[in-house]
Amino acid sequence: MPAALLQNTPYQRTLANCFDCEGGTVRIVENRIDGLGIVAAEFATGVPPRLTVNSNVATRDWSVNLSAPQTEQKVDATELQHCLRATKLLPIDGIVKTTATQIIAHCRTDLEKARAIYDWIVENTYRNPHTRGCGLGDIRFMLQSRDLGANVPN
User: Each residue of 28-52: pLDDT tens digit?
Assistant: First the structure.
């Protein structure tokens, strides 16, 4: 089960991740590189698996007016490279690269490219209540199978 972010961001600060795991053991598996934590619980045979996770966070409204001219901001190259890197489930080559290139073919600016990809995702993905959990999260598989549905809240 996911925990609240492990790192503070401009829009969210985690105050606490608390767990109740009666009859079992619980730990948080941390991925510090991405600021993510997964709550992992184990129960002995015969023990009913019950886990309660309470995350307390402070949030801040965060918005960007994409229609207004923006002043160019300095971006930390390390942070930018981190956000642009490939991962196991988010490759940046093959069918993913081909699809993205087709989506942005008519675009000139980075903002136009980001908007085109966002619009394509909104137009082509859908909620599939039969998908277990939120799906595999494997974009290559989703594009290859042409199954762009996931079980996400409405």
Answer: 999 888 888 899 999 999 999 999 9
Task: Determine the Cα–Cα distance for residues 38 and 57; give it in Å rounded to an integer.
Answer: 16
Q: Among 142, 135, 150, 50, which residue's Cα sits nearest to residue 96?
A: 142
- Residue 142, judged by CB atoms within 10 A of its CB (0-12, 13-18, 19+), counts as buried
Paired strand residues for 13: 58
For residues 34-65, one letter each, b for 16 or more C-beta atoms within 10 angstroms of the residue's C-beta and e for the rest, the string is: eebbebebebeeeeeeeeebebeeeeeeeeee
- At 88-122, the pLDDT tens digits run 888 999 999 999 999 999 999 888 999 999 999 99
Number of Cβ within 10 Å of residue 31's Cβ equals 10
pLDDT digits (tens, 9 = 90+) for 127-143: 877 777 667 778 888 89
Does the CA dihedral 144-149-152-154 come out positive or negative?
Answer: positive
With a threshold of 0.90, does the pTM exceed it?
no
